[in-house]
Amino acid sequence: MKYKMNYRFYLEKRFKKGTNTVEAKRLEKQGKPIGKYLNPNETAINIGITYNERYLKVGTGIRVLAKHFNVDKQRVLSSHPDCVEINNKLEHIKSSIKNRHYSLVLKGKTPSIATIKSIMEEEAKGIAARLDTTDFFKIFDKYMEEKSKMIKHQTFKNYQTFRTCMVDFVKAGYKLNIDAIDEVFWNQFYTFCAEEKNYLNNTTAKQVRCLKTFCNWMYEKNYIDHQEYKKIPDREEDGEIIYLTWDEIEAIKNYDFDFKPRLGVVRDQFIFQIHTGQRIGDILKCKISDIMFDADTKQHYWKNYQEKGSRTKATYIPLSETAMQIVNKYAEDRPTDSYLFPSKSRQAINGDIKEICRYAGLDSEITITRYSGKKKVSITKEKWEMITSHIARKTFISQGLRNGIPKDIIMKITGHKDERSVRHYLNLDKEFISKEALRVWK
């Protein structure tokens, strides 16, 4: 019959890697045990359909151990605790595809190959998504349990934020299936982030990077068999970079905070960060004993142990005269194993920095433009309101590049791996562009 379709459920990877599958199947036909050849990890159940002499296949999103799947009956064995639920879902997928196919035939239509494939994907992934939503979070929690001992506290918090975002995604009625994290998913997630969460595109990109890192781990652990997620874009949009001018740095440096000693300490810490280009976490971990003098170069250095993921690397940060004045101020008459600056939460530090900048007169209005989806979002505030500890790092890079420090030197100090990361911080304003162009073209 012209419209006849043959259906088959099968395992994506039934046998373990390196198995002689011909030999294993021969033994199976002879009724001999083949347990030692079976894949020890859960693998996907796919559905394959022969239609008009073409073979089409899609993943159902359901995963089981090979020992729990009957190849001849194409069903999950009773030894699996959820066998009834899974088998009902497989039957529902098959009957739903079959019914939609015949519905088109009865209307006098001849479904194309593309139409049948689309029906298969909609029905298979639709059923699987309802089954696998909890699996996504169970697997993610396993991932976090494994990674929590190797990642920094801030990175852990970023992943907690990502998990909350994905929970909200599901609560909003979207499907979440580990075997369907692809461009179709991306379109839905992008819409959700822009329209329901009102995320700026760069915030969405950060969530996607968390997702892709998690997917890489799932692929390595054989939870998923595809890498479609790699096609999802995660590059941040370039925008205006906020940094401090030399006049603003001097205004902050020279402001008298005797009336609020707390702000004076944070101000000194902020200036030290501007002169060294390090993250606030590194600044807070700096010990007096980490400051050293090199007799050969006659230069003071800060031996900073920069953390990147689970790795730690010692970097020698040259200290300017201003930075050393601050070191001497806070190291005097204190044990060498003391931290240079007092411990304080990042939130409190950023609040103090805003107050410091307001006192120092950083009240010019600045406007930054970002995008949420395709919607342009313009934010206008006084400059002090936009200053955080991270602006110190941006200032170090921006002013360094503007004043001729080579990119590779800046990258060595800041710990950046590629030039794109450094260029992201560079703000070439109109005055600087004009000055540099006219320096050559008189």
UniProtKB/TrEMBL annotation:
SUPFAM superfamilies, sorted: DNA breaking-rejoining enzymes
Gene: xerC_1
Pfam families reported for this sequence: Arm-DNA-bind_5, Phage_int_SAM_5, Phage_integrase
Source organism superkingdom: Bacteria
Annotated protein name in UniProt: Tyrosine recombinase XerC
Family per record: Belongs to the 'phage' integrase family.
Record key words, sorted: DNA recombination, DNA-binding
Keyword Acyltransferase: no
Lineage, broadest ranks: Bacteria, Pseudomonadati, Bacteroidota, Flavobacteriia, Flavobacteriales
One GO term of the biological process aspect: DNA integration
Any one Gene Ontology molecular-function term assigned to this protein's record: DNA binding
Organism of this sequence: Parvicella tangerina
InterPro entries: Arm-DNA-bind_5, DNA_brk_join_enz, Integrase-like_cat_sf, Integrase_catalytic, Integrase_recombinase_N, SAM-like_dom, Tyrosine_recombinase_XerCD
Membrane-spanning intervals of the chain: none
Domain (Tyr recombinase) ranges: 239-438
